[in-house]
Amino acid sequence: MVGLCKLKENMTLTGKAKEDFEKWYINQNYELDLTTDLSPHTPVIGFDELDDPMKYGVFVDWFDSVGMIGTVELELSIIAGGYDRQEARLWAIEKQNERYNTNKT
Fold it and tell me: Which pLDDT value is given to residue 38?
C-alpha cells in the first residue's frame, strides 16, 4: 500500500536504539550466553531467528521498558487506515526506532 515510504522489509532497529535494545535483551535472559561479544557485526543470539510477530512482541516489551508506550496503539491506528498488520507493525517499530534515536542523541 502506498504511503509507508522507506519501509524496511524486516523488523530491525538502528543506531542507539539497536545498541540499547541488545543490552536490554541480554539482561532478559532469553536463552543467551551472557558472555557473548555484542560487536556491531554480531547479531543478538536467538533474537534474529525469531519470526517477525515474535520480534514485534519483544520490541514492544523493550519500548515499554524505556517509557515509549504506544507501539501497539500506532499499529492499530495504521491498520484502521487500511494497512495490513505486517505493514503496520513494521511501520510502528520503524517510527518508535526513529523517536528513540532522536531523543537519545
Answer: 52
Query: Residue length, the chain?
Result: 105
CA angle 94, 100, 8 (to 5 degrees): 15
Give the cell for residue 8: 524496511
pTM: predicted TM-score of the whole model, two decimal places: 0.77
Distances (CA, A) of 41 to 15, 35, 38: 13, 16, 8
Give 7-57 pLDDT, tens digit per residue: 456 788 999 999 999 889 888 865 545 455 555 545 566 787 788 888 899
DSSP letters of the chain?
A: -TT-TT--SS----HHHHHHHHHHHHHTTSS--TT----TTSPPTTGGGS-HHHHHHHHHHHHHHTT---HHHHHHHHHHTT--HHHHHHHHHHHHHHHHHHHT-
What Rg do the C-alpha atoms of the chain give, in angstroms?
14
